[in-house]
Each structure stands twice: as structure tokens, then as C-alpha cells.
Design a protein that fits this description.
Layout: E1 3-7, H1 11-19, E2 24-28, E3 31-32, H2 42-52, E4 58-59, H3 64-76, E5 81-83, H4 88-92, E6 93-94, E7 97-98, H5 107-124, E8 129-132, H6 140-147, E9 156-164, E10 170-181, H7 183-186, H8 191-200, H9 220-229, H10 231-242, H11 257-262
Parallel strand pairs: 1-2, 1-8, 2-5, 8-10
Antiparallel strand pairs: 3-4, 6-7, 9-10
Helix pairs in contact: 9-10
Amino acid sequence: MKTINSLSGGKTSSYMAVHYPADYNVFALVTTIDKNCIYPDKKIRQIVSDKIGKEFIGTLEEDVIIQTILNLEQHLGTKIDWVCGKSFDEVIQRSEKIYLPNVTQRFCTTIMKLEPINKWWKENINEICEMRIGFRANEMNRAKKMIDRCDENGVMWQKFIESTNKNGRNKWKNHPMRIPKFPLIENSIFKDEIVNYWDKNTNVPFAYLNNCVGCFHRNEVLLKHMSVKEPTKFEWFAKQERHDGHNTRTFKNGMTYDKIKKSFQQIQLFDTDFNECDSGYCGL
């Protein structure tokens, strides 16, 4: 059975890739076509374009994640497969209107993370595999959410388009795809051990937080912090909520990103002030 390490660009999944080698390491990149968020290094943009098979303009995660994956590949001494679906701009565009994801409709992760990985699996493996997920020993609740979606044999199934009928409708078929494994939970690896490892191996840089700068899973205090730390990328999220009056949805219920930008910022924040995303999806 083929093994796959699913990488998010954070310290935890990167630690997993180092200590639990797999047949494949896969990373899904979130992109934007907004040139206000352009990645500043033209040469690196071309490298990334070659890896994802289409033009890379920029990402809505912190820019350092690009260097994270490039350097991690060197640190591992083995290839990382980059996958990429539609840009965030394309995902939310519905005719003339903008349709935003939120906590109850998290289609952004499905389209930009899960679907590109699933497509890559279908094209390269197309048989049941073991997919390792970087959940730490204290994140058993996240693992349980995935295990609960497995069949009696511990396999997660995935629907794929098999054909299109004469009316243009897709015909879908369910395929047994992966058995999720959690090596960090199985081996009682906690955050302190992971942090200590990367403190000693500084050749791989990491973002302040991985996943999108304006991720709606984050609380308002952290989003305010990110609006100051990454103003251009955060403005992309605020702009989508405005969209010249063609949008009535917001990323967070009862709060616009413009209001978050104008809110009071705490004087000092620490990494431990915040919990990581508990959706159980973004690192898959």
C-alpha cells in the first residue's frame, strides 16, 4: 500500500514528513490572481508555476509558506508534489456576484485543498493508500472526526466524476481512496517536541500561522493582528465582502473585515494566545 504525507506548510506536518517518510509528500497551495498580492520574487514565481502546472501570481497565505515547502524539500532530500486547484478569486465568483464561504459552508477548503489532492491521487495512485495526517497527540478529537467518516474497514471513500451525459450532467462514482493514519498521535508527539526540533533546524522557515491570512475560523482578535501583519492580503478578504454591493454575505456572522481592520489592537500578542484551526480539513 502506498503511503502519503499530507503537508500543510506548518511545523507539525513538516515534522511528520521528516520523521515518518512516505512514498509521497503532497502539498496543496491556495492561490490568488489578484496582482496586489503578487509574490515579490519573479524567479520563485516561475519555480512555483512549473511545480503547479499553471501561472502562479500569489498566495493568500503568508508568502513565507512558499519558501517553507521549497526548503523542506531540500531538508527531506526527496520530492514534494505541489497541487493546486482554482484560485480563491475563481472559487467565490458566481456569475456577477461573489459568494463567500463561512464556518457553515466551508467550500473553500474543499475546492482548493481537498479536490486538488483527490485529483492528484486519481491520476498518480488510484488505489487505496495510507494517508498520514499531522495531528498531534493532544488532537485526538480532530482524528476522530476523520475516523468517523471511514467505513467498517477504516477506509474513506471519495466521489469522482466518471462521465458526462448528453445533457451535460456529471455522473459520479464513489471510490475507496485512503486509510487515514496519525503517526504523531500513535507515537505521543506533542507540540513542544515539534517546536524544539525546528528550533534546532532553522533551514526551514515557517509562517506565523499557516492557512489563509483571513481565514474565518480565526477569532476577531487574531484577524485584527493579521490585518496589521499582512495588510495587503487581509485587504483582499475585506474587498470581497464589499464587492461594489454585489455581495450580501460576510466571512464571519455579524462582523465585517472592514470593522475588524478598524477595531482596537491588543498591544502584545503571543502564539499561545490562539488555538489552531479545529476544522479537521485544512491540513488534508
